[in-house]
Amino acid sequence: MKKLLLVLLLAVGSYATVQAQEIKWMSLDEALAAQKKKPKPIFMDVYTDWCGPCKMLDKNTFQTKEVSEYINKNYYAVKFNAEGNSEVTYKGKKYTNPKFDPARKGRNGVHDFTMFLKVQGYPSMYILDKKGEVQSPIVGYHTPEQLLPLIKA
Fold first, then answer.
1. Global pTM value
2. So which residues are the signal peptide here (predicted)?
């Protein structure tokens, strides 16, 4: 009985490992530096901590094998918190979030880079071409079946 239970637990654990995939996220500064060494487009997920559809995108779309493998193979992947306090340097200009309040829960000051991108809603996904130029956004929650054709185009 113990052996059967152990085999069952191992099977379930290995199935969960196969199902949940990880995208290799990095900062925008790291991706832009990597892009200079080996040109490859950048896939950037712009999210906020309070955004429900952003969390659904993480759980239901980015963790699927097809999406994570495609993004890891073809892009440098960036996760950017639109209300975070990171400093971003893009095209020689530094962007910050001067109104960020670390004690605040929920919505926080909007990051200057979010304003530069003209983010229309959350989540928003951007592709920066091999030269680092920002392309049109993909706005809103997308299933894997909806997202893959858009990022393969």
1. 0.83
2. 1-20
Per-residue pLDDT band at 3 (split at 50, 70, 90) = low
Tell me the two tokens of residue 28.
């925008």
| E strand or H helix at 26 | strand 25-26
The residue segments making up the domain with residue 83 are 22-152
Position 88 in a domain: yes
118 token code pair: 């003209």
Asked, for residue 86, whether it belongs to a domain, the answer is yes
User: Would 87 be classed as within a structural domain?
Assistant: yes
Which CATH number does the domain housing residue 142 bear?
A: 3.40.30.10
Task: Classify residue 83 by burial, with Cβ atoms within 10 Å: 0-12, 13-18, 19+.
Answer: buried
Closest CA to 98 of 86, 81, 89, 116: 86
pLDDT tens by residue, 10-67: 444 444 444 568 999 999 999 999 999 999 999 999 999 999 999 999 999 999 999 9
